[in-house]
Amino acid sequence: MNSNLSLINTWKSLTILVIGDVILDCYLNGNADRLCREAPVPIVAVEQCQEFPGGAANTAANVANMGAEVLMLSVIGADIAGDRLKYVLKQRGVNPQHLITDTDRSTLAKQRVVADSQLLVRFDQGSTEAISTDTEQQLIQNLTQLFVQCDAIIISDYNYGILTPAVIQTLSELQSKYPRVLVIDSKNLKTYRSLKPTAVKPNYAETTQLLKLPKQSSQRAEQILPYGDHLLSLTGAEMVAVTLDYEGALLFERNQSPCRTTARPAPQNQTSGAGDTYISTLALALAAGAPAHTAALLAAAATAVVVQQPGTTTCRFEQLHQFLNGSDKLLTDASDLAAKIQRHRAMGDRIVFTNGCFDILHPGHATYLAQAKALGSILIVGVNSDESVRRLKGPERPVNPLADRLTILAALESVDYVVPFADSTPHDLIRIICPDIYVKGGDYTREMLPEADLVESLGGVVEILPFVGDRSTTRIIRQICAIYR
């Protein structure tokens, strides 16, 4: 991960041009505990109104929050929504000076009504027809001036009239004359084939439309996997990143084997704008010189951060840094742990808990933890402190100090959180977590577990996983000692 941390530190020196359809996203949040007299519909008592930059504006906000300088080029109306959009962009570090105001257009706005975390309805308004000839010429003039100032270009095309054929032709000419990293997110990717983009990012629905395939509710990756070369040909891109929601993403690159990244499950109402985060991070990584696979991994990491947040949100540089460093997985405060558990319960997650010393991590541990994670949605690992390990294993243990053991466990994809504890047994942790499933390895029986009665009294179940033979920390230590005798 250190090389990735070094890479994202270079993003502050980059300038990224974002061009596309900007949207004002609004969320009216409240509660609904009664029905309207006029019709059988819920009455929402609005308690909070939140506004976010959406569409290409959210892409620009993500770039800015990642530390790079961003140039935002688009068109808005001379209206309240346009003023509000400029305000929320400024709040997120994006200068709106290159937004062209057209008095004949209405700013795109999407208003969502949410009651008790449930999206009830969305209202869309704003101009979606192609921009006028005069506005188009002004946009092209600004594009020509800004293009040479940037290290990469992100096209965020929602098919709302900004990316006209003349604008695309200008992009093609500029890209031919001044080649840049060019990353495209569009509902009409074939339109950009002549630009020979660096990367394109269709979602699952757009991919099936491109390939003329039926949509599936599961095994989407398996369905798309055979069509990598065809997607590269259809889009003219050097790489295609197909985002698959909860199934992660597939990356296809010319003359390379496809690779797949995973995703953290999240409620549907928290995934709005996740694609903007993905493409922003992908573009930044590629502009910084990262290989495609690394760029895709960083994009997946940033998306994993943002889908844990409600609303249309951005991933900040500090959040991505913490995620890559594994520190977002380390919980040392009981109140933080309780808050995390409460949040996952509200999302309907099935929580799995296990504990141990994990002194020298070996394949047996990795297999065991992967099997434990498969039993639920969230895997929490309790880790014995150095003093408690000494009480359990003897004065010469642990070999690795607690900080190292926590760091290594946090780096595993199967592990969602690591929690240190000082007692010989994790009873206090179990009372806070109330796990749905408590897991131990096959070298234990239920009768050997002092935690079993507590877990079951709290409504959980105890699972004993198969023992991974010929793998143990003690055995590894003996082998090392034998070598140096």
From TrEMBL:
GO biological process: ADP-L-glycero-beta-D-manno-heptose biosynthetic process; lipopolysaccharide core region biosynthetic process
Active site per database record: 276
Gene Ontology molecular-function annotations: ATP binding; heptose 7-phosphate kinase activity; heptose-1-phosphate adenylyltransferase activity; phosphotransferase activity, alcohol group as acceptor
Carbohydrate kinase PfkB domain boundaries: 16-315
GO cellular component terms, A-Z: cytosol
SUPFAM superfamilies: Nucleotidylyl transferase, Ribokinase-like
Family designation: In the N-terminal section; belongs to the carbohydrate kinase PfkB family. In the C-terminal section; belongs to the cytidylyltransferase family.
Function: Catalyzes the ADP transfer from ATP to D-glycero-beta-D-manno-heptose 1-phosphate, yielding ADP-D-glycero-beta-D-manno-heptose.
Name this polypeptide is given: Bifunctional protein HldE
Originating species: Oscillatoriales cyanobacterium SpSt-418
GN (gene name): rfaE2
